[in-house]
Amino acid sequence: AQLGKAQLVLLLELLVVLLPTSKAENSVSTTVAAVAPARTSFLAPLPRTTTAPRTTALPRRQPHTRWIEGTWTTGYWDCCKPSCAWPGKGKVDRPVLACHAGTEEVLTDSGVRSVCDGGRAASCRSHQPFLKHKNLAFGFAAAGVSGSHGLTGDENCGQCYELRFVDKKHDGGVWGGAHNRLVNKTMIVQVTNIGEDVTGAHSFDIQIPGAGQGIFSSGCAAQYPGFSTGDFDCDNRYGGCHSKDGCSRLPAALQPGCHWRYEWFHWLRSGGQTNNPWVKFRRVRCPRALTDISGSTPLDDHLFHTVEPDQYF
């Protein structure tokens, strides 16, 4: 019996020693079992975060990079505050700049009323066309709203387009098209205005001093005191001055752009050409030569072709 008790004590001592080991093994097993699902749940989302986005902006805008054909252009200069200078126009970093009608200083407040509506905000004289070199000009324009050629209005504010003048004539009348010395030349324009009357195959209305004030004929005389309304378009609201001599009626600050119309654009040369020339066009990335003037850059500009001036020589 005493031997049995000794064996029993020994057995109990062995159990005391073995039980912690068993618990430790069980805890390790439990820990491993608990950790494994956690790692699985952590790794599971990785394929979702590394998968390419379902859609990107580039495919939706790709049609704008191809050439759009079959449209024609006009010119205007009415001195009004550009439509794209108002807040909320287009997807841009900031509205297009306007200038004070009296001082020509750039306005930082986009809410100032237009000079064509009794206010003091006007088009800046720097918005007239200028040459990069003999085959390439820069400028600003009002965009059409028809939508049939990708121009729909306010959403085009701030966007830039490459216009390539083509050898096509209008049917009948004196609408000549492009002079042969203008054909295949290029102009890069930034949209600063929206032409509600620019519809159908009419795509762009280029800002050119002396090219006609159109329906808004009060702004220029208000911006430039001492000049009559007729001085700004040679008394021809739609079409403007017929010759370079008429540019002398404009304020000196606007005459370079008026001269450009006859020297590079070849307006009304050779019995009517150029007159509302036809173009093909495509959207491009805005050159700094334009955005430094307008103060406005599209937020998606990086998606589009960069203009390299040297390729137009």
From TrEMBL:
Record carries keyword Hydrolase: yes
Gene3D superfamilies xref list: RlpA-like domain
Domain Glycosyl hydrolases family 45 active site: 73-296
Catalysis: reaction(s): Endohydrolysis of (1->4)-beta-D-glucosidic linkages in cellulose, lichenin and cereal beta-D-glucans
Enzyme Commission (EC) number: 3.2.1.4
Protein name (database record): cellulase
Keyword Signal: yes
Family according to the record: Belongs to the glycosyl hydrolase 45 (cellulase K) family.
Keywords assigned by UniProt, alphabetized: Carbohydrate metabolism, Cellulose degradation, Glycosidase, Hydrolase, Polysaccharide degradation, Signal
Signal sequence range: 1-24
GO biological process: cellulose catabolic process
A molecular function (GO) term: cellulase activity
Species in which this protein is naturally found: Pyrodinium bahamense
Highest taxon, organism lineage: Eukaryota
